[in-house]
Amino acid sequence: MAATNKSSKQKEEVITARCDSHIKDILHLLSQSENVSMSGVIAKSILEYYQRHFPNQSFCKEEQKLFGRYGSGKGDLSIKRKQYLKEFLGEKHRSS
Fold first, then answer.
1. Is pLDDT of 40 > 80?
2. What share of the chain is helix, strand, coil (3-state, %, to 5)?
3. Which residues, 6+ apart, have CB-to-CB distance to 41 below 8 Å?
4. For the chain, what are the domain ranges?
5. How many Cα atoms within 13 Å fall on the side-chain side of residue 13?
6. Model pTM?
7. What is the mean pLDDT of residues 5-29?
8. What letter would DSSP give residue 56?
9. Residue 86's CB: how many other CB atoms inside 10 A?
10. Kindly report the CA angle at 1 between 18 and 4, in degrees rounded to 5?
11. What gap in Å lies between CA 15 and CA 5, rounded to an integer?
């Protein structure tokens, strides 16, 4: 089964789903045999279903469209941010 990535910052939400007694028994059996909570079995099952039905997509592709679109190519921005800011502002004020 697919592994679930849990982040300590990720908020868990409660959902309600209906199923017949046969499905509930299977869920309980899987939970016991895998030593995972019923919620864990459901979460893994949904992720596996998604990956099987949408093999060319990932959850991260949508986020990748939003984040990192305008990369500078500089891997040291967190270290040299002040230097780069001074250079940028100096160039901005010199050209006006």
1. yes
2. 60, 0, 40
3. 27, 30, 31, 34
4. 15-56
5. 3
6. 0.50
7. 84
8. T
9. 11
10. 80
11. 19
